[in-house]
């Protein structure tokens, strides 16, 4: 029989453990700044109005059924998903240099990309280590190591400035062996909320080109960083224009509020060349084999919702409006939190709260301060001091600022 006695107890996932502790807390003052899911000003999950509309369209379709999707997913979604990232008139799409597969949200997309690289990233002498930012979304570590690709980190967050450690990042990318796989957050970096500027992206691209590094973009917050879908896709579009061969993991969890529906895509983009379309066809055929053995075919419900919105100009415009509502409320909360801390004269500088963007802010609070906030004030955040800005609202922001003020003093 299977000797299961040797299986050790694994630790609970820290983020989901935090969510459980929050739920069990009976204090009326409790505040959830842990999980990265959007909340409205009443601290409630927000079903995007445009998603409600798409849902009604879907439900009233007499032809709708529960059949399987093709292995690569819903084509009306994957084609629009690629356009959303690369632009409607992207040469890479016109030249058939893109292969897109619908995945189990962003996590599944990162995993499929990792599996694909584990199987095929075998250029002569190339380094198979995946370089991720320090810090990064914790799941990156286990997703890549699970498929046998080792992880190394490049400096990213400067603790002094609470901004980008650009020199450290460049030095690490410059000294990584040529042809290394570099994981990049396209926008709204998780957990820090710190993104390179357009000028810094240009430097990163030119350095990576010189080093023949392979870009692996993870984009889970398009439209959340600036509120503008095109602007948030800027770094990806720039790299594609520079002629990189690259891959992209794309999540629709946050920007559509389709968290539990697991809608996302994985994209491969070939470098421009005379046989790029042929290479892309072969890549797509291998992605299909991997997908078939892993999940057979992806879930249909969230894919249909996103597809309805992406394929209808009026609904698309409404989606952009919904995105501005979410990103606007988050920016408002950044201003209020910083304003209150400054009004209280809380020791330290708090400009990083409004300098950082996207769903998260890396506050700079120590682990001890984070624990004190939890035990004394029922405020929950990850122990690295990351807060989900969406957990703040007009009723709790002063309470949170006052509590932070007390634990910092
Ligand atoms: N990448 C990053 C950087 C993320 O923050 C997330 C969401 N926490 C994901 C990928 C994937 O999330 P999901 O699988 O829910 O789409």
Plain-language structure description:
Its cofactor is pyridoxal 5'-phosphate. Homodimer. Belongs to the class-I pyridoxal-phosphate-dependent aminotransferase family. This protein is an alpha/beta fold and 409 residues long. It is 45% helix and 13% strand. The protein is built from 16 helices and 13 strands. It has helices at residues 14-24, 49-59, 75-86, 91-94, 105-120, 139-146, 166-175, 198-210, 229-232, 234-241, 276-294, 301-310, 313-344, 351-355, 367-377, 397-408, and strands at 31-32, 98-104, 130-134, 151-155, 157-158, 163-164, 181-185, 214-219, 246-251, 263-269, 360-362, 379-380, 386-388. The strands form 4 sheets. The chain has a 7-stranded mixed beta sheet with strand order 2-10-9-8-7-3-4. It has a two-stranded parallel sheet with strand order 1-12. Helix 8 links the parallel strand 7 (181-185) and strand 8. The termini are far apart. Bound molecules: 4'-deoxy-4'-aminopyridoxal-5'-phosphate.
């Amino acid at each position: 029989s299977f000797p299961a006695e040797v299986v050790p107890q694994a630790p609970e996932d820290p983020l989901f453990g935090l969510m459980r502790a929050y739920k069990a807390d009976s204090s009326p003052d409790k505040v959830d700044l842990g999980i990265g899911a959007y909340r409205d000003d009443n601290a409630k999950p927000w079903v995007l109005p445009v998603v409600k509309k798409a849902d009604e369209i879907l439900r009233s379709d007499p032809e709708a059924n529960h059949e399987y999707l093709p292995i690569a997913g819903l084509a009306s979604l994957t084609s629009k998903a690629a356009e959303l990232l690369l632009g409607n008139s992207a040469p890479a799409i016109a030249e058939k240099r893109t292969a897109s597969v619908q995945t189990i949200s962003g996590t599944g997309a990162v995993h499929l990309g990792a599996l694909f690289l584990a199987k095929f990233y075998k250029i002569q002498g190339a380094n198979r280590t995946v370089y991720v930012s320090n810090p990064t979304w914790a799941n990156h570590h286990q997703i890549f190591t699970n498929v046998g690709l080792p992880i190394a980190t490049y400096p990213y967050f400067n603790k002094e400035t609470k901004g980008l450690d650009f020199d450290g990042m460049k030095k690490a990318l410059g000294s990584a062996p040529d042809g290394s796989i570099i994981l990049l957050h396209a926008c709204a970096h998780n957990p820090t909320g710190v993104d390179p500027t357009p000028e810094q992206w240009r430097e990163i691209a030119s350095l990576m080109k010189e080093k023949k590094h392979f870009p692996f973009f993870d984009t889970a917050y398009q439209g959340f960083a600036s509120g503008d879908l095109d602007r948030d896709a800027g770094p990806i579009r720039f790299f594609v224009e520079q002629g990189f061969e690259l891959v992209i993991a794309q999540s629709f969890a946050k920007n559509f509020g389709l968290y539990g529906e697991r809608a996302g895509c994985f994209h491969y983009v070939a470098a421009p060349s005379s046989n790029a379309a042929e290479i892309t066809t072969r890549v797509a055929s291998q992605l299909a084999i991997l997908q078939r053995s892993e999940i057979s075919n992806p879930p249909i419900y969230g894919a249909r919702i996103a597809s309805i919105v992406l394929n209808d100009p009026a609904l698309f415009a409404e989606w952009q409006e919904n995105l501005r509502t979410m990103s606007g409320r988050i920016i408002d909360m950044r201003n209020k939190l910083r304003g209150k801390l400054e009004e209280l004269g809380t020791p330290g500088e708090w400009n990083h709260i409004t300098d950082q963007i996207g769903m998260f802010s890396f506050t700079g609070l120590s682990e001890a301060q984070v624990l004190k906030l939890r035990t004394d004030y029922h405020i929950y955040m990850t122990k690295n001091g990351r807060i989900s800005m969406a957990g703040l609202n007009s009723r709790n922001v002063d309470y949170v600022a006052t509590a932070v003020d007390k634990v910092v003093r």
